[in-house]
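Progress against Task 2.4 (sequence-to-structure conversion) is shown through the following example record, which the project officer requested during the mid-term review.
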Amino acid sequence: MDTKEYKRIFGIVLDSVGTGAAPDANKFDDVGSDTLGHVGEAYEGRLALPNLQKMGLSNLRGKAILGVPKVEIPIGYYGVMQEISAGKDSMDGHWEMMGLPVSKPLDTFPNGFPSELIKKIETFSDRKIIGNRPESGTKIIAELGEHQMETGDLIVYTSGDSVLQIAAHEDVIPLKELYKICEYARSLVNGPTYTIGRVITRPYVGPDKDHFTRTANRHDFTLAPIGQTDLDYLKSAQVHTIGIGKINDIFSGQGIDVGFHNESNMDGMDHVDKVMQEDFTGFCFINLVDFDAMYGHRRNPIGFGQALMDFDKRLGTVLKNLKDDDLLILTADHGNDPGFKGTDHTREQVPLLAYSPSMKSNGSLGIRKTFADFGATVLDNFNVSGNAVGTSFLKELMNTEEIK
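Structure tokens generated for the chain above:
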């Protein structure tokens, strides 16, 4: 490659794919969590991730992932990142990646939402609210879904994160109406009395509790970024920005030129393949949420592992299609250990894997002190100034020493 900068950067966030408890996991009651480690153990050595393996997925762990041994010569650079934000939600993780750590904890509701808030939503929607407690989405829908279908009530629930989730059957409450209700709820929790990270629409379908399925028509109404993110700086500098998956929702569309909604991880990878065929200069930011929504919260390590193997196969196509002036960065926004207690996100370190066909060296990026190092690297690559949060690792990627 003749120039210092990569023409295109593809940043893929494997939502919830943590790689071991963070140093501050005790503050979150998450000591012992290890998403990748426990998935590997559940597969008893049968977890096959050849592409992630050769990128160095196991290399900076004290203990290799069972079934995914460390490699002597990774194809690029590997490391882990630690989070400094006050929470462990997707919003916290993504905002921090883009140079905007969340320093003040957002509101959580371990005893359900206050009656004042519930009554306002009931009055606006002209519907009764049921549930109103922390709970697994699939569990509360199985429990209350048939009642919701009969009455037209709204199922409201939360989790250990700063989220307000509203579920309803698509045949009972049309999506347009459900979105409108959630948008109103969003307007109530932007502070100062209540400040909630995400209001999430959770539509489902199915004839009865044994067959309810949450659909891809989920929508996250996220708290608008409270400051400039690296995406804003890139867009202001006329660097093309593309969001795939829930990226557009997480940043409320700010700093994003083009956004694509995902129906699934594989649909998201279809979007990645399509964008890779386009001729542009800029940053493509991707979130693949199935690991989290389908398997992490449901504490299903076997399904989680299969989703990882399915992604790994698609990753092979991405690696094959990368151009010399492309850079691929893989990471995660938090953990969601399917082998751990509870049903919530887990405070973990996350993988950091970087590769370009033009690389003439490989090695460790070490333990990055903040997720913001990711965004700082993207800004550095496009010669764009940001808010000075995070440390770029671009120079390390541009090492000219030949791979041994």
